[in-house]
């Protein structure tokens, strides 16, 4: 697993846990020192996080943490669920080619291997996230509906909407680990429905899959709120 992918996982995790305040500038050099990496993978991670809607470019060309509401996130996730449900139904109805079946199997196998790690590390998490991204991208590409594909691309610019942003971030927690296993089992069930040509079942599974994202969003915002409550108290203690 590349350093760039690991840095992306770590930086996304920090943002979602509320380590940075909304509007706070993210300096490449400081982030690189904090994560033990060079500025190159940090810069690439920030570009990806901008695409995911977690950071935005300010007037000086630097990156700052984007402020977002729970409702904005929930709406974006719900839209993705409907779009990916439609894509899955189309793939099932069109039929799964031998090439697509092989590519999806490879994603599932890589996911199985990544989740076998105990405890989950950033490296194993990054490996799973890569397989997860490819699985979703393969289904979307195979649906053949360009309007739907463009709609997903547009929706991905909102926080938590992209495929990997739907995954639990704090992998040290047992509850998060269980949710990741549950999400991966859904991938296996969706693969089975696609192969069998079960359009309605595939659509339902793809839509239901986004509940993991809704859970992740709720947990991340709860942890963010806890951090925001603790930090002012710490500042008061330090200032005495």
Automatic annotation (TrEMBL):
InterPro entries: GntR_C, TF_FadR/GntR_C, Tscrpt_reg_HTH_GntR, WH-like_DNA-bd_sf, WH_DNA-bd_sf. It comes from the Bacteria. Residues 1-68 form the HTH gntR-type domain. The keyword Transcription applies. GO terms for molecular function: DNA binding; DNA-binding transcription factor activity. Keywords: DNA-binding, Transcription, Transcription regulation. This is GntR family transcriptional regulator. The lineage of its organism: Bacteria, Pseudomonadati, Pseudomonadota, Betaproteobacteria, Burkholderiales.
